[in-house]
């Protein structure tokens, strides 16, 4: 599965900066129907412990939602354009809010949507593989080229370095195509 391999690539970059172990050691009792019987999600939640997985984007911290917390965290959101059965929120900002969700209404391979708390979700990737690969690009640049919060020109964190966004866009467009703009809008305004 390309998604699992992409996720392992993301974790390998994160492990260079943190000694947490994300490999699941105890088997979780996963309800495949809650995950829309999606083989990729079932495998992802079977293989990886996401409870401590936090990704720094340079502007914010994102937290993957572990399987044991999925139902509880998903109950805190609702959208007028989607029914509850159509989506699963799997990432949110640390502390809650601004969720990233899998939209199962589009096709068998769920598209990835994001939203700010008061807006309807908008598409940021055609599928999970694209999203993970794009997130890996951001993590690689932010962690390895800018030491996370050094994407800013000053300590007030009010202005991004001029070379940062063009560098990210250049690497994201081949992965996301027409979704690159929305992806960038969600992550960097």
List its traits.
189 residues, 6-stranded antiparallel β-sheet
Number of helices: 6
The assigned structural class equals alpha+beta
Overall strand count: 6
Q: State the end-to-end distance.
A: 32 Å
Q: Round the mean pLDDT to the nearest integer and report it.
A: 88
Largest sheet: 6 strands, antiparallel
In the predicted model, the low-confidence regions spanning at least 5 consecutive residues are none
What is the beta-strand fraction?
A: 5-15%
The global form is globular
One letter per element, helices H and strands E, the order comes to: HHEEHEEEEHHH
Count of structural domains: 1
**Spatial sequence of strands, sheet with the most strands:** 1-2-3-4-5-6
Gyration radius (Cα, Å) is 16 Å
Helix content: 25-40%
């Amino acid at each position: 599965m390309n998604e699992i391999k992409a996720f392992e690539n993301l974790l390998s970059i994160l492990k260079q900066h943190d000694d947490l172990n994300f490999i699941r050691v105890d088997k979780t009792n996963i309800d495949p129907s809650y995950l829309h019987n999606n083989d990729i999600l079932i495998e992802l939640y079977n293989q990886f412990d996401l409870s401590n997985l936090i990704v720094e984007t340079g502007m914010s911290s994102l937290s993957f939602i572990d399987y044991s917390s999925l139902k509880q965290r998903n109950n805190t959101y609702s959208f007028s354009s989607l029914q509850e059965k159509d989506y699963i929120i799997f990432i949110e900002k640390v502390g809650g809010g601004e969720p990233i969700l899998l939209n199962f209404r589009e096709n068998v391979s769920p598209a990835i949507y994001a939203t700010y708390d008061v807006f309807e979700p908008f598409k940021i990737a055609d599928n999970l593989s694209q999203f993970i690969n794009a997130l890996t690009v951001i993590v690689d640049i932010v962690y390895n080229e800018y030491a996370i919060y050094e994407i800013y020109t000053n300590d007030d964190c009010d202005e991004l370095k001029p070379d940062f966004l063009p560098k990210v866009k250049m690497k994201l467009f081949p992965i996301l195509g027409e979704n690159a703009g929305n992806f960038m809008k969600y992550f960097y305004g």
